[in-house]
Amino acid sequence: MKPILSLHAPPAGHWVGDGFPVRSLFTYNGLGQQINPFLLLDYAGPTHFAPTTERRGIGQHPHRGFETVTIVYHGEVEHRDSTGGGGTIGPGDVQWMTAASGILHEEFHAASFARQGGLFEMFQLWVNLPAAHKSAQPRYQTLAGATLPVQALPGGGHLRLIAGEHGGARGPALTFSPMNVWDGRIAAGSTVDLTLPEGHIAAVVTRRGILQLNDAATLDQAHLAHLGLTGTQLRLGSREGADFLLLSAPPLTETVVGHGPFVMNDSAEIRQAYADFRAGRFGLMPATHA
Length: 290
Ligand code: MN
Hints:
The chain is 6% helix and 50% strand. By secondary structure, the protein is mainly beta.
């Protein structure tokens, strides 16, 4: 079985804009250095929002050098960016945005959800780009929940494949380096064995319930386990049932230097990103619709 290298409780929360009450389960200055290409994981909610006619979220801001992957469980998120990409995603949907050479975007609760109010819950994962692809063209993939393969797990549960491959099924996300991003469920009283490719580092996060990992650790809600490179087997169990996010990939062994919304390979590239942003070289947001 893959070795459990460390266990991480969630830190205190903070707000991203006025829409996203997040706990950063890891960042590019911490564990993200060790599980590169996974740089950062913000977990928002579950939080109840009262109905409002205000826009809740975060206005125009830049990113460069990586991808943001937004996975929605409750509520609706509306996004617009400087490439003209955008749209609304709801429960079960995923947005895979490649910032690469540079993008401006805004992220808000969808107006319809804000007016109605209700439970809000999502992950935002930052995925690194190999140095050779950091200046690729920005792009935007909407992965509607209905298009994600759902694979039943012998033993009780399922995997929704966002990226990567398991048991012959493949997630639809186009990625710049190999990786698995799986959204899974373990049924109450079940134990399942998953096989990862050789040479992957991995992280498992419990989103709901309590997860038993490799018959060795108990992962409470919002806790994370960091798994080492050796072995291919993972055993997940749950007495009452649990939902989880699993990330795995061959390690990307390039230097990670991040600052704010930019993640590059050295500090000169970070200074260049700020200079380019200040000079307006990240493009322009499309005109706001009435
Ligand atoms: Mn953003």
